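# step 3/5: fold
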Amino acid sequence: MTPAEYCENRTRGAGSSFFYAFLFLPDDQRRAMMALYAFCREVDDIADEVSDSQVAMQKLQFWYEEIARTFSGHPNHPVGKELLWANDRFNLTEELFTEIMDGMRMDITRTPILKASELSLYCYRVAGAVGLLSIDIFGCHSNQARNFATTLGEALQLTNILRDIREDAGRDRIYIPQEDRIRFGVADQAFKQDEASDRMQALLAHYGDRAEACYTRAMDLIPDDERSALRPSLVMGAIYHRYLSLLKKRRFDVWQQPPRLLPLTKIWIAWRAWRYEKRAANRGMPVRFDF
């Protein structure tokens, strides 16, 4: 199996929404994005699946070292070899890979999130940094595009947190800052209950509003002259925005009604968003996530 095949299999097998945003890309960009996503999958699986924190840190250390080897031209792992290929073509930023791994370190060490600023840092590391690497692959380098990428990254990660809050609680992870849990009167144990109380729903709705505000801000930030190149990011935003819409419809009670999107639904959203943007960017039509 070639490194490219390994990364494609890793991306397809994960069942992630990211895969559907890659479908319409040119071959070289799609290959680079699959390498980036395969890396994210490798380090995220360590944080999610390795229960012994010491073992998890050892495995994560391998990736710190592998990224250093990759950017010095001597990777060992198939993902590292594909990232070397991608870096040769798209000039990726090594420090952003370190940021992603630092986010995984926060998960492994169960770093408590006490304040909104700490949640923002976590979102930047695990999603904003991925967004910045993605726009490098898309060929977008303006400051406005970077602001768009980090803002959309926060929107996606907040949606992810709201969608997976039950599963994360089972891993003893609560990403909603303690200061807000106290303000809304929601005890930590409540995240492990079988249903959402009125207070819990109010707390999660507050973060749903914050996620919606990030989607809106991202739409406002997208630069007109780079809109076509950023189309894959808008497709990703459309898929995740559908999750947020489902969460709102169900009053954020993921305990009773976990939001799910079938692969066919994701393909349908991706196709509709891509088709719309292909016309809209040339005609000055508004950016949309509601597909």
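# step 4/5: annotate
The mean pLDDT is 94.
# step 5/5: archive (pending)
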